[in-house]
Amino acid sequence: MKSPDRRKKPVRSTPRRTFLAGATLTVTGLAGCLGGENGSGGTAGTTGGDGVDDEIDDEYEYVTSDGTSWDDLPPLEGELEIYSGRTEDQILPLIDEIESRYDDFEVGTRFESNEALISLIDEEGGNSPADLLYTQDSGSLGALKEMGRTVELTTDVLETVPENWRDPDGTWAGVSGRVMSVLYNTDTYDADDLPVDIFEYARDDRFEDDMAWRVDSGSFLSFVRAMMIEHGEETTREFIEDMDASGITNHEGGSTTPEAVAAGEVSIGFTNHYYGGRTLDDQPDAPMAVHFTENDLGSLFNVSGLAVLDSSDEQELARNFVRHFLSTEGQEFFVETNREYAVIPGVEYGFDAIPPIDDIDYPDFDLNQLADVEPAVDLLRAVGYR
Amino acid sequence: METETGDSADDGSAVRDARPLGLTMLSGAIAAAVVFPLTWLLLRAAEVDAERAFGIVVRQRNLEITLNSLTLMGSVTLLSILIGVPLAVLTVQTDLPYRRFWTIVIALPLAIPSYIGAFAFVSVFRPRGIVQSWLEPFGVTELPSIYGLHGAILIITLYTYPYVFITTRAALKSFDTSLLDAAVTLKHTRWDAFKRVTVPQIWPAVTAGALLVALYAVSDFGTPAFLQAEVFTRQIYLEHRSLGGAHYAAFLSLQLVAITMVIIALESRISGNETLYTGRTAKHDSKPFKLGRWKWPAMAACGLLGFVTLVLPILIYTQWLFTVETDRAGTFDFELIYALNSIGVAGAAAIVATLLALPVAYLAARHHSPLAWLFERATYIGFAVPGIVIGLALVFFGANYGGIFYQSIPILVFAYVVRFMPQSVGSTRTSVLQVDPKLTEASRTLGRGAANTFRTVTLPLIAPGLAAGAALVFLTTMKELPATLLLRPTGFETLVTRIWAAESAAVYGQAAIPALILILVSGLSMVIILRQEDL
């Protein structure tokens, strides 16, 4: 492995504390989303949480989609335990910054893969020490909801996040966005040479033995599951088998693929856009750029998101913590440090190497359909990927 | 309870141990405690309906994984014997120059976690890695792939053969070389003498080391995952890491446990259970075999092995240490507490494992009863079960029935004991076998009680074995990752959790410091192991 060359200038979120301090009082009811009629318990098909709406304190000043400063949020007090499916370099600086703002607030964090954490929560049962689950994709949050282990978030939080990027039952909210992308080596291809249809990559002889993707991530499962929902199992199976037949390299680990493309090991790599962005942050001169397919699953939009656990005894504190992620400073962190997209329009995407989300023709896909990824797991088993 | 069989039963004086009942019950309780977490697998497997379970077990893929795992285990074991035994002979019975130095070099790879070795290997040998770039001017555009089962076999062998090397060495050192001299005098060739005299004497030690290699190979996760070899552990991890895969993982784990039990039972058949009283009375004054000109190729082979297994990974990590600079690494700064935590839990695990291993190993060595055999063999199962399985099992029992102990150090240490105790059991049992029962009989005849005899006669004699076992447990605990991740208290960071965090964030330079410190600390404990046999 080529040793990573990292000469990056410091990039840190720069909180604009005074931002829109007065414009934060948008209070909108969203009662329709907060039906508490759903049963609890671990059976499949359970939607919604444990019906604790009455505990939700709606008296606070809320976060809004225009951007709300941390200064305008209620202070956090107490202890929270967060299980995080994202690696600590991607999220701990934000958690640390929030923690350090308040004297009487402490956060414990455990990092593992989304799925390992869900197994963990499942084995722990009602005694789970976790208050919040933060995951890399909506599918894992949907799975937690299916297990009956989530509770509703506050109305303002749900109002702030676009409808497609949160649970309609209000049990989880996306806090940062990412799009599947085609990374390509610019020594080998121009953007114009590249197909805008994901299926073309499996058919085109030019790409034989010259592609790589990451197969061990939740995003990959989501991608496969989404394709099964849109195009059926047969087409999806053929697609994966064709990709395999064309000699695509299966990688594990998020940065492996972009680094392989940057190093010229392969010319085409499929990953979430921000892995490309981060590699370009580290190696600005790398012969690599980001390309997107048009209106198909090759540019599937997904979110990292937060859910509050039903077993938490700090549910109100946990909900307020979610607000901090969705405020201006939190969203700026995702953009400036991780190169992800903000989920609120109030924070812009200012990174030259990758277009803003509005310029990308991503498909209109309901992320809640990705809660049950088991069919995708079965399919991958069947084609010998697992 | 009919536990008293064999020689001590018909020995009227009953001086060896008059009351094995208490010891048997204690051993049984210890064996039950370390096997107990595996009942979790049965709980999970029982949740699957029969038809689906059948489909899971009989499918083609399952067969492939089983075959791959057996191939991995068999090949690594065989190769380890082929490397470990000759090197042990070389460093004990020949006049190889700088024997002490080479002994340390050859044993030291055990101190390096195989995933660290795998990581370095992949950097160097991967299709377009360092070696390929050296060969580029000579027209080599691509190297044969290191990925796959063959790569995993190679790397796991390079980091586990020392188990065979160490146990074989110990046997060679304590065996009576006058027998060998006699054989040579009787006009046997050296090779004949080796086959007829040495091999039977060291065979139990070789198989004991080989068993540890086999079980380690089949339970190792990092290396197969890294090299994409499709074996049980990787599959079990993948299943646990995909939603809804827990049931399938439970079935895979049960298959793995079943295979393991066969291996464990087989090993005791193959190795026999003979007593090796020769122990400390062996003569070491026999003349070493003269290598002559062969000493050069012999030293070259040792040097090459040392370069590949030790120097290479250390160079790679050191290189990362100096080349990598990123602001994102802020959360990965090294703190001394990581090393102290590692040493603390590994030390605790070593002490607890040694204490628990003692009664089990003593009973098995002194009383040839079926129960003693069963209890001793039962403690080996945990060594073959992937850490994630032990981890999740103890998450389940800990969170639901463990009260305040959940996510605490005691449960973490218990997990290590379940995983690594057999190393201590094996080493202790061998050392008890080497104590001539006549010594303890004499002590009892002279009026000392059983406890007093054990303390004043047996314990000093087996102390080196206990220490070597403890050091092995310490070493493997230092390397353990999956159970540590699941069971540690929140915020409790060790060297391996920091290596893991840095590597999962792809900031390899930040993995370098904890990795190098891990190698250093483990290397020191390796030296302790070797000192036990008076290097």
CATH architecture of the largest domain in chain A: 3-Layer(aba) Sandwich
Count the beta strands of chain A: 10
Structural class of chain A: alpha/beta
Q: Secondary-structure element order of chain A, as H and E?
A: EHEHEHEHEHEHEHEHEEHHH
The ordered string of helix (H) and strand (E) elements of chain B is HHHHHHHHHHHHHHHHHHHHHHHHHH
Number of discrete domains of chain B: 1
Outline the fold blueprint.
The complex is a heterodimer of chains A (386) and B (535).
Chain A lengths: L77 E7 L3 H14 L3 E7 L2 H11 L7 E4 L2 H9 L3 E2 L3 H6 L11 E14 L12 H6 L7 E4 L3 H28 L3 E3 L4 H7 L5 E5 H10 L5 E4 L9 E9 L5 H11 L2 H11 L35 H9 L4
Helix pairs in contact in A: 6-11
Chain B lengths: L6 H4 L9 H16 L3 H7 L4 H9 L1 H34 L5 H9 L6 H12 L4 H6 L13 H12 L1 H13 L2 H9 L4 H30 L2 H6 L4 H9 L5 H26 L23 H29 L12 H31 L3 H9 L2 H4 L2 H15 L7 H25 L3 H9 L4 H30 L2 H6 L7 H10 L3 H24 L4
Helix pairs in contact in B: 2-17, 2-18, 3-15, 5-6, 5-9, 5-10, 5-12, 7-9, 7-16, 10-12, 11-12, 12-15, 14-15, 16-26, 17-18, 17-21, 17-23, 20-21, 21-23, 22-23, 23-26, 25-26
Would you kindly provide a brief summary of this structure?
The complex is a heterodimer of chains A (386) and B (535). Chain A has helices spanning 88-101, 114-124, 138-146, 155-160, 198-203, 218-245, 256-262, 273-282, 315-325, 328-338, 374-382, and strands at residues 78-84, 105-111, 132-135, 150-151, 172-185, 211-214, 249-251, 268-272, 288-291, 301-309. Chain A has 386 residues and is α/β, with parallel strands linked by helices.
